[in-house]
Structure formats: C-alpha cells, structure tokens
C-alpha cells in the first residue's frame, strides 16, 4: 500500500534494527503538535517509533509510515503524595528518571539504557532488573491514551477498555499510537545501590545461585563465561544489588544526580568485527571482566542511575559487535530444563566455532499471556556475531527452543521465523483475532509484525 | 525575571521557553492549540519549579489575538523579555494566495507580532533589563518567487524593529531581531535544503546567551551574513535564474 499522507511532513530515512539485521529505507514523520496526530493517514499503514532502539525491526517497515514520538517528551502530571506520574510516550527513560529521583521516586522496572522511550517500554512490555520481584512494565502502567486514526483518542486502563489496554501493553505498537502514559512510581529507598558479586564454577550452580538469591535482591542478574569449555563452561558471577539501608540523602532533591547518556545507535560499529571477535579475544575479555569485577565481591556502592542503566558505561561493547550486525537470542525456559538447553547450546556453538560474546540470566515469575515475554522460568540472553555459521546455530536454537518448551523474546530478534513464534506463543492466534476485531484494516504494521504474521 | 514567549509550544519557541525556565524565569507562553499549551506549561512547571501561565491563541486572526493577549498581559504584569517566535509559511505562497489566507499569513508573520509588542510595551520593567526579541528569516533578504508574503512580512518586521530601536534609545529596552537560516523544525522536516539545518536548542542557547547584547539585526548561523551579501549583489538576471 502506498503511503498517502499529504497533510504531514515526511522524510525518507535509512532505518535499521539495533542488531543491524534489518535495514530499510522508510518514510518517517515527526509531528510536534497534537493537531498533527489528526493528520496521520487514515488509510495508509503506519507504526509508532520511540527511540528506535529495538533489536527487532518493530518501529519501521518499507510500506509503513514510521511516526516518531520524539517531540512528545513532556511530563504532564505528577502527584508527589502518591508518586503517580503522567508523561508523553516519547519521553526518554533517563529524562523521567532525573525528574523522579529529584522528587524522591523511581521506576523499578526499566531496561538497561536510559535513551529508550516510555512508549517503547509499554509496547514491548519490557522487563527490568528483577522481573521475579517486580513483574513486567505493565505492572507500572495505570492508564494510557491511545490514538488510532479510525477510533480517535481512547483512554485505556484496567477499568476502562481493559481488553484494549492489555492488547496495547505488549502489543508492539500494533493497536495505535500511544500518546501518553500514567505510571505508578515507587518511593526511592536510597540514592545508593550496593552490589555484591558471587562467583560460581559452572552453569548448574550459577542458575541455582541466581534462583536462590532472586527473592532477596532488588536487582539481580547472572553473567556467564561461555568461552570456557568442559566443566568450567558457563562459570561466572551473580550480581546482586540492594538499596543501601540508611541513606540520609534519600529523597533530597539537592543531592540527586542527573544522568544524560550518550546517544545510542547502530551507525558507528566496527567494520570487519569478525577479525577481532573470536574465542581467544572473548576468553581474554571475559577473564578481564571477572578480574575487574572481583572488587565487587565485597559490595560496590553506586548511584541508582548506574544500577538501572548499566549499559551507559558499557555501550562501547556494541561497537565491537561490528557493522555487519549481531544476534541477541533471549529466551525464557522453565527452570528444570534451562541448564540442559544452555549446555547443548554451548556444545553446538563450540562445534560451529561461534564465540558467544555475552551470556546472562535473570529469574522470571508470574503468568504469561498473549505475546508478552513474561511467565515463570529462567530468562537467558546470548549474543554472537552475524555469519553463515550463526544461521546454523540459530536454526538449532529455534528448533530446540520449541522442543524444550521455551519462549523467544520477540522484540530482541530481528529474524525469528513466524512458525517458531507460533509454536512458542499459544495465544498468538488470540492476539491476532483481538487485533483484527479492534482494527479491521490492520493499519499498524512493522517489519516485525509482517514477519510474524501479526 | 519574567518573560513572555509568543509561540512557545514548538520549535525554537519551545526551546527558548525551556532555556528560560532553566534560568528560573516566570513565563507566559502562548501557542495555537490548548493541548500543546497545557503540555508545555505543565512540563516546565513540574521540571523546573517555575511559574508558567499558558494561553492558546491563534496569531492568524489578529483581532482575537489582540483581545486575548491584551487580557493575558494585564494579568501577567511587569515583564523583562518578550520573544516573538511566531510565523507561518505555506507552499502555496507563490503570489496568488487566496485573500483570506494571505491576510492570515500577514497576521501571523507581521501584524500579530507588532501588536504583541504594542500590547506589552507598557509592561516592561523600568528598573531591570528588558528586551524584545523578534525573528525574521533569510527569506527576507531579497524578493522571491516562493514564500512571497512570508518574506515581505518578515522584511516589514525588520523595518519595525529598526524603528523600535530608535524609539527605545535611552531606555532600558533592547530590540533584537534575528535573521535565522535553516532551522531543524517541523516546517523544514524532510526538506532538502542547500545549507545545513540548525538544531532549535542551539538557536535558543545562542539567543539566551545574548540577551544583554545591543539592539539590531543579527544572522544565525553567522555565515548567512555572507550569503546575504552575495544574494543582494547578484545581478537581477542571474538571481531570476537562481530563483526558478
Ligand atoms: C541497550 C539496550 C538494552 C535493553 N535492555 C532491555 C532490558 O533490560 N529489558 C527489556 O525487556 N528490554 C531491553 N531492551 C529492549 C528495549 O527495551 C525494547 O526494544 C524497547 O521497546 C525499545 O524502545 P524504543 O523506545 O527504542 O522503541 P522502538 O524501538 O522505537 O519501538 C519498539 C516498539 O514499541 C512501539 N512503540 C514505541 N513507541 C510507541 C508509542 N508511543 N506508541 C505505540 N507504540 C510505540 C513501536 O511501534 C515498536 O513496536 C534493551 C534494548 C537495548 C538496545
């Protein structure tokens, strides 16, 4: 379908998924007044775009108009007694964080980089630093305003338009443009977070430790060295953070620290990364990482912003993954099979001589529904460079994920085949049906929604 | 300090309002639509703890504009700075714009602006620094085939500022007008332009940093001064070709 939007300024831009797996030239609009929303096309495909940082191509498609929320980044309301805050969906996490912290509040559930937008967090129903304790982003959403060219502006919450509310939170932008979101924030217990790291010798003990500690920590994740072979495969550390118990600075506006992260993108990546990234360099880097973090063992004090957005200091990592791109394979597996799957993954990767540049785990809890990446189990992510060999590994990962009864994170994988998503998400059909009931024209489309047949 | 930003809900105006709020100014900001005005006023109040009043008025209708701005000015009281970041352009402004559209364009780019100055003149502080900051465009350098009424209105505005500078001599009121080059706003979005677009934040920062500068006309980015000289001295025959 041709994009027909005469009343809105549009430009053509080369857009790509954060993993550089999908690149397209797309039409993009950037409204800066509310009246511009009424000018978004009624009969052309379109999709909202937040910060454009998803690893999957979820906010663009060649035949869709990407509508950027960049200029809609204002704070609309804040109740200092209850911590409820209402924001426009294009606001970046760091910007909201700076405001909240200055007022003694924070959002516990946030992804690892402050440049990500609130709209992107709602639409992908992201998880934060301890999903088991806090749940997914949806837990923080009180209500939202959605604009759809055929329906106008709709107010959604658990009490009003509940079905559409749940379809939108974790609906990957397919129900319409989220204009604003009302969020429940939490009192910030302390400005300071104390992190301890505990080593483990292998994958089994690592996952065990992660599971045991997850209920006690405010933020927790495991890091694994997948460059090791034999018994040491998957050895690593569990990082556990808790708010410092007594902090006289808590909630004091004058003592809080503002963060302004560097912009994050996928334009500046190292050419020919495959010449540098190999088993030996990764092994050396992992050893260095373990040594550096041994200071953490006793407890490292850091600002809440550093704990919530650890990637601000590590974003150089993405440069080394190269201009050719990388894969992030993030999955949710039941606890009893996770270690088995990960061991087999290691064996296949080693056989294919694919260095795993990152391996990290979290513990999840709660119910899974529709196509949200949630539910009980071990959430595990691995990174590796794009290559022909990588495609063989991916085929193994996909087919075994189905066999092991796991779930892939749709927003993190720019190539996941439709049949794998269908095999792993039993309610995908229900999602499709509900979406069509609301929007018979299926106006909102992205490369991801087309690939997955949503 | 108290400042007024006419057209303070988008583009350069929004950035100026933000930069002023950062400095602690109490603000009156206007915009065409209430939703935008509300969003901007709330954001500035909440983030910077400053007093912000908002007013939704449409500069394309000068009669209503004058009446409503007059009332808001009386309510807001004494001020230090008045920023006039309104303007409107149209692709159809090529010489035969419909009369009502032409009047609306004249109003947005000239009439409403000078009326705003007239309205606020009696409210400028007598004891603290004060200033009127207007915005022209490089389109006003020379007559042209596109943006005909827009360019003419901006040229008229420059003339008004020259007069304002003269009549304000010996007072604490400065009258600065900027001929802006290409700015990265909604109006320029997607347009292929011969020179780079400047981030509105940068424009606002520059303007706020020069509030105590002398009255007069300035170019931003500065290199447009050179381009202006060239455009002015190019013989008519060549200029006609450049314009077609
Ligand atoms: C460095 C990094 C760290 C990350 N860490 C985590 C993590 O810890 N946990 C986690 O779960 N995820 C994480 N992610 C993934 C990330 O949180 C999601 O991909 C998120 O959706 C990105 O948001 P965005 O603002 O970049 O949105 P985009 O990539 O622009 O869009 C993502 C989706 O949201 C939709 N969308 C965006 N804005 C709106 C709107 N206003 N209205 C309707 N739909 C909208 C888009 O249509 C699209 O479907 C991380 C990603 C990166 C790059």
Any chance you could write out the topology, listing elements then pairs?
The complex is a heterodimer of chains A (454) and B (244).
Chain A: E1 10-16, E2 23-29, E3 46-49, E4 65-68, E5 75-78, E6 84-88, H1 93-102, E7 105-106, H2 118-123, H3 131-134, E8 141-148, E9 152-157, H4 162-168, E10 177-184, E11 186-187, E12 192-200, H5 203-213, E13 219-225, E14 235-243, H6 279-292, E15 300-303, H7 304-308, H8 316-320, E16 326-333, H9 335-351, E17 358-364, E18 377-385, H10 388-403, E19 407-408, H11 418-424, H12 428-438, H13 447-451
Parallel strand pairs in A: 2-4, 3-4
Antiparallel strand pairs in A: 1-2, 5-6, 6-10, 7-11, 8-9, 8-10, 12-14, 12-15, 13-14, 13-17, 16-18, 16-19, 17-18
Helix pairs in contact in A: 9-10
Chain B: E1 2-6, H1 11-22, E2 26-31, H2 34-48, E3 52-56, H3 62-76, E4 81-84, H4 99-121, E5 130-137, H5 148-167, E6 173-180, H6 200-209, E7 216-220, H7 224-233, H8 236-243
Parallel strand pairs in B: 1-2, 1-4, 2-3, 4-5, 5-6, 6-7
Helix pairs in contact in B: 1-2, 1-6, 3-4, 4-5
The complex binds flavin-adenine dinucleotide.
């Amino acid at each position: 379908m041709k994009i027909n939007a005469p009343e809105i300024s549009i430009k053509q831009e080369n857009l790509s998924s954060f993993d550089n797996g999908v690149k397209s030239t797309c039409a993009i609009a950037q409204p800066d007044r509310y009246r511009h929303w009424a000018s978004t096309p009624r009969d052309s495909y379109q999709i909202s775009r937040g910060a454009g940082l998803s690893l999957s191509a979820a906010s663009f498609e060649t035949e869709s108009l990407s509508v950027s929320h960049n200029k809609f980044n204002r704070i609309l309301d804040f109740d200092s007694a209850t911590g409820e805050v209402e924001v426009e969906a294009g606001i970046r996490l760091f910007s909201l964080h700076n405001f909240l912290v200055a007022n003694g509040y924070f959002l516990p559930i946030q992804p690892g980089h402050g440049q990500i937008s609130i709209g992107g967090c709602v639409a992908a129903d992201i998880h934060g630093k301890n999903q088991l304790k806090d749940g997914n982003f949806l837990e923080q959403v009180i209500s939202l305003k959605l604009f759809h060219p055929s329906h106008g502006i709709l107010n959604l919450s658990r009490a009003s338009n509940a079905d559409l509310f749940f379809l939108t939170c974790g609906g990957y932008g397919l129900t319409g443009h989220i204009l604003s979101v009302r969020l429940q924030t939490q009192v910030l217990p302390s400005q300071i977070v104390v992190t301890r790291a505990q080593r483990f010798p292998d994958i089994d003990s690592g996952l065990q430790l992660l599971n045991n500690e997850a209920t006690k920590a405010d933020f927790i994740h495991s890091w694994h060295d997948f460059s090791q072979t034999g018994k040491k495969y998957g050895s690593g550390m569990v990082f556990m953070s808790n708010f410092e118990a007594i902090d006289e600075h808590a909630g004091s506006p004058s003592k809080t620290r503002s963060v302004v992260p560097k912009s994050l993108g996928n334009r500046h990546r190292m050419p020919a990364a495959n010449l540098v990234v190999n088993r030996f360099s990764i092994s050396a880097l992992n050893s260095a990482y373990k040594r550096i973090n041994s200071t953490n063992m006793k407890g490292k004090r850091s600002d809440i912003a550093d704990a919530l957005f650890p990637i601000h200091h590590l974003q150089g990592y993405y440069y080394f993954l190269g201009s050719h791109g990388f894969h992030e394979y993030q999955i949710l597996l039941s606890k009893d099979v996770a270690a088995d799957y990960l061991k087999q993954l290691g064996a296949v990767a080693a056989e294919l001589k694919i260095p795993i540049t990152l391996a990290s785990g979290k513990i999840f809890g709660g119910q899974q529904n529709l196509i949200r990446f949630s539910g009980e189990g071990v959430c595990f992510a691995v990174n590796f460079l794009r290559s022909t060999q990588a495609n063989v590994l991916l085929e193994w990962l996909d087919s075994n994920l189905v066999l092991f009864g796991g779930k892939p994170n749709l927003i993190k994988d720019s190539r996941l085949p439709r049949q794998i998503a269908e095999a792993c998400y039993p309610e995908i059909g229900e999602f499709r049906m509900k979406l069509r009931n609301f929007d018979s024209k299926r106006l909102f489309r992205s490369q991801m929604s087309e690939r997955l047949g949503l | 300090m108290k400042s007024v930003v006419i057209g303070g809900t988008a583009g350069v105006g929004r950035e100026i309002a933000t930069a002023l709020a950062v400095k602690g100014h109490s603000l009156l900001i206007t915009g065409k639509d209430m939703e935008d005005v509300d969003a901007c006023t709330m954001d500035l109040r909440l983030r910077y703890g400053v007093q912000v009043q908002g007013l939704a008025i449409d500069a394309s209708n000068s009669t209503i504009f004058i009446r409503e701005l007059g009332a808001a000015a009386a309510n807001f009281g004494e001020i230090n700075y008045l920023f006039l970041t309104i303007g409107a352009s149209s692709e159809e402004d090529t010489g035969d714009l419909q009369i009502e559209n032409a009047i609306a364009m004249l109003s947005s780019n000239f009439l409403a602006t000078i009326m705003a100055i007239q309205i606020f003149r009696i409210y400028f502080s007598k004891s603290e620094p004060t200033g009127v900051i207007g915005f022209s465009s490089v389109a006003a350098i020379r007559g042209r085939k596109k943006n005909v009424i827009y360019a003419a209105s901006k040229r008229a505005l420059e003339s008004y500022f020259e007069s304002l500078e003269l009549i304000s001599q010996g007072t604490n009121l400065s009258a600065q007008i900027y001929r802006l080059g290409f700015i990265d706003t909604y109006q320029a979005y997607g347009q292929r332009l011969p020179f780079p677009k400047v981030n509105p934040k940068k424009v606002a920062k520059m303007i706020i940093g020069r509030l105590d500068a002398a009255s007069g006309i300035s170019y931003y980015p500065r290199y447009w001064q050179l381009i202006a000289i060239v455009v002015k001295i190019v013989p008519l025959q060549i200029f006609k070709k450049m314009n077609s």
